[in-house]
Amino acid sequence: MQYHTNFKQLNTHLGPRIESRLYFGGTAYLGIPQNEAYLALYLEGLKKFGLNNGTSRGNNVQLGIYDEVEHYAAEKYGSGSALITSSGYLAAQLTIKHFVNFGEIRYAPDTHPALWQNDNPQTDGAFANWAVNIVDEINSSDKENWVIISNSMNNLYPEIYDFSFLKQINQSKHIILLVDDSHGIGIINNGLSALSAVPKCENVKTIIIASMAKALGVDAGIIFGDTDLIAELKETNAFLGASPPAAAGLFAFMNAEKIYEVELSKLNQNIATLSNVLNGNKDWHFIPNFPVFFSKNADLSTKLLAKNILASSFPYPDKDGPIINRIVLSSWHTNTDIEELIKAL
Q1: What pTM was estimated for this model as a whole?
Q2: Is the dihedral of CA 272, 278, 280, 284 positive or negative?
Q3: Which tens digit of pLDDT belongs to each residue from 225-270?
Q4: Phi, psi of 164, rounded to the nearest 5 degrees
Q5: CA 309 → CA 239, 278, 281, 331, distances in Å?
Q6: Beta pairing class for 174-180 and 204-211
Q7: CATH, domain range 61-245
Q8: 58: left (phi over 0), alpha (psi -120 to 50) or beta
Q9: Where in the chain is the domain with CATH 3.90.1150.10?
Q10: DSSP notation for 279-317
Q11: Is 17-36+257-344 in CATH node 3.90.1150.10?
């Protein structure tokens, strides 16, 4: 089995084709990096705000767009407040470091490294089994305060996690739930965030963290939560001292609601087309309305490359791990692209 590494020094943009090969990988689920209408908005933002803003959010001179886009995002995704940082990693680390001393910390399986405190927390097994165990542990413990950290989904072997277990935790327990929704925001729950899928419990405060650089196509990170929690995070040194993302990208994000709607519709059509072909095929694993198709065929990428199709193929969770082969769809793929892929498969 060959792991192809000759595409790691590209001198071109990523898109539906790379060096004449059809490309089915990456995380640009809504095709934003090559969307002409979105690029026009970004250029408009560049002319209005310039290339970047190197001053911190604690500076006495501020661009108003940062508060404006945080308010817009909170309303759009149904949150009390929002906080925007220069990256998803910073958003995750800022949040983890602030709430690390709230109570006992427990990680769900396969939580993204951006949310780790130090080393891999080594939580194994299926999410559903872990959920049963964590409820038992919390309810039987004399500890009252807990921090639960999880992804909203597994994007490699696609699975959207069910957080209904939170309703089974004793009301006497105080829970802060930190959820990384980087691969779900803009796609799952009709384009909303995982916040809409987490049950509302009086004893649970939910904070959603996400990279905006995937489906949303913006080099930034975002945090959603209750107004009091976001206010706490905005007083941290990491928030006040770090430079914010480029305002041009946020300007485009705030003015691109229709673009996101159109591209999500295209993506869902592509997903439906491929799903209809692969339904019932035991060599594949996929879920409704998510553009990742996991292949159990270890030689898939090599076979597709011979047909000028470049799939997502890399070792996980580290360089010595097994190679994960996947087809990742984007809204930038045309019907012809999808038919070519289906013919090759």
Answers
A1: 0.93
A2: negative
A3: 999 999 999 999 999 999 999 999 999 999 999 999 999 999 999 9
A4: -65, -15
A5: 42, 18, 20, 17
A6: parallel
A7: 3.40.640.10
A8: alpha
A9: 17-36+257-344
A10: TT-TTEE--TT--EEEE--TTHHHHHHTTTEEEEEEESS
A11: yes
